[in-house]
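Our platform keeps sequence and structure together, in a single record for each protein. Such a record has a labelled line for the sequence and another for the backbone structure tokens. Nothing more is needed to write down the fold, since each code stands for a local backbone conformation. For reference, a complete record is included directly beneath this paragraph:
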Amino acid sequence: MYEQRDPTKAGRFAVIATAAWITLTAIDAASSVYTVSVLNQFSGGVTPDVMRQARLSDAINLPTSALSGIAFCIAGFAILRWILVTNRNAHGFAQDSGDQMTVSPRWSIGWFFIPFANFYMPFKGVSETWRATINPRDIAAVEVPWALRLWWGLWIVTNFWGNLTFRAWRHTDTTDQLMAAHSLTALNLLIDLPLAIVLIGIIRKLTAMQHAALQTGAFPAPSADGQVPASFDTPIAEHDLPN
């Protein structure tokens, strides 16, 4: 028997933390773009104005990079906590329907840290949670929505890009290498921004569905196409939350 709890607070924390992370990541990316523009000026000679801009760039880069990294860790914790809560709820919804769910609450977050398996198993855990929330009687009848597939595809891409960026930062002995590292950091925003937007949408929607199911005992309905009725698709308003 899995203890169920309203995921609203966990979902809200995950949304706020994700929004904060992507905001600070965007600021860090802007800082890298500025640094690249400053480094480009060195080709025309070192002037007092260029040196002033270089010092300003250095003063901005360290705190923006540190804050972005801290925000990423906080968002990661918040998202994993939300995944744990929603997966546990989904197991409770489907407990009378046989062993349809194969990823346990603990492993729904544990798989993120297992090499190679983390390319697929975390996605499987979240997709099972989504489908069991829509139709706990037959989760296989519910199609995995495109948003989940897009989120997971972007997550894999940003991990590869992050690895490439990390390698670039290990070799910044020349101006060109430093420019390349900053450029990769800035371009990563093109992946992280849609990733954050899609993830926030998933969190809000799944949280709203589980909140409604726990409050009323009703589920969106057996569906073969993954569509969710409008009444279960609306984010929970503040006045609708339990005390």
